[in-house]
Structure formats: structure tokens, C-alpha cells
Amino acid sequence: MVLALHRAFGTVLLAFAMRTLVLLLAALLASAGFIRGEIKGPENAPIEITSTGETTYENGLATARDNVAIHIGNTDIYADYAQYHSATHDVELRGHVRIYRDMSLYIAESGVYNTETKKIRAINGRTESQPYFLSGQNVTSLSEN
Predict the structure, then answer these.
(1) Does an H or E element contain 3, and which?
(2) pTM of the predicted model, to two decimals?
(3) Cβ–Cβ < 8 Å for 121, 140
(4) Residue, of 100 and 132, whose pLDDT is higher
(5) 128 within 8 A of 105, measured Cβ to Cβ
(6) 76 class by beta-carbon count within 10 Å (0-12 exposed, 13-18 middle, 19+ buried)
(7) What distance in Å separates the CA atoms of residue 66 and residue 33, rounded to the nearest whole number?
(8) Domain ranges of the chain
(9) What is the CATH number of domain 45-140?
(10) Residue 52: which pLDDT band, with cuts at 50, 70 and 90?
(11) What number of other Cβ atoms are within 10 A of residue 55's Cβ?
(12) What's the first-to-final CA gap in the chain, in angstroms?
């Protein structure tokens, strides 16, 4: 009779341990969503601006001249002149503008790129992304894709 009670007691402990393990796993998976929300994404990536000419930063306005290269997240931007407005997150671009984002290439005489929304506004621009080729005087991207 002692053995029968011993086995029943072991079964109860095993069921309790299994239930605890399942609850612990569920709590871990549920908290993963909260943790993931706190990780900084590409929208908060640092902006790297380099040029062969003069580069200045005054009052939240970064200006670069001559062979400007800007790298932010998965986007590379090249132009003759660039001015970054930290308050609006806009990069004003002039001269031989090329914007590489993922597998897309945008070419323009001038334009504006918003680092927060990833929206592109190009003057006399075109794309060279297959299967779509686009050209126009005022070209605006609707989303980052």
C-alpha cells in the first residue's frame, strides 16, 4: 500500500512540474514580444556622412560638399551636395544624386530623402529597378518598398 501511494505522489509531482514548465515557457514567449518592441531598429540607425570637400555641422544642420556619401541602415546615398536637417530628418540632395536602397536604385538631379519615413522626392529622377523603370520631373516614392 505504501508503494501505491508513493507512485501516485510521484505522478502528482510530475504533473505539477510539467504544468510549471508549460507556464514558464508561455510566460517567456509572451515577454519576448515586449522585449522585441524595445530593440532599436534601422529607423534609429546612426547616419554616417562623408565627403571630399567641406563638411560642417551647426544648429542641427549638417552640410557636406563634393563627393558626398551618406550611409544609414540599408540605404546608401551619393551626391555632389547634401544637407541633413536633424529636426525634420530630411536630407536635401543636389547634383548627380544616386540613392541605393535594398535592391533599388534611384537617380536624380536633386531631391529630398527622409531618414525616418524613407520617402524619396526626386526632381528629374528615374529608377533603375527591374521590372519597373520610371522617369519623371517630380518622382516621389510612396513607401520604403
Answers:
(1) helix 2-38
(2) 0.61
(3) yes
(4) 100
(5) yes
(6) middle
(7) 45
(8) 1-39, 45-140
(9) 2.60.450.10
(10) very high
(11) 15
(12) 71
Residues 116/95, Cβ–Cβ less than 8 Å: no
Task: Say if residues 11 and 34 touch (Cβ distance below 8 Å).
Answer: no
- Do 64 and 49 touch, CB atoms closer than 8 A? yes
Residue 137 has pLDDT above 80, yes or no: no
Which residue has 558626398 as its cell numbers?
68
Q: Would you state the cell numbers that stand for residue 49, as one nine-digit string?
A: 556622412
Tell me if 108 sits within 8 A of 126, measured CB to CB: yes
- Cis check: omega of the bond before 46, within 30 degrees of 0: no
Cell of 95: 547634383
Q: Give me the DSSP letters along 41-97.
A: -GGGPPPEEE-SS-EEEETTEEEEEEEEEEEETTEEEEEEEEEEETTTTEEEEEEEE
pLDDT at 96 over 70: yes
Q: How is residue 57 written as a grid cell?
A: 555641422
3-state secondary structure of 133: coil
The C-alpha R_g of the chain, in whole angstroms, comes to 27
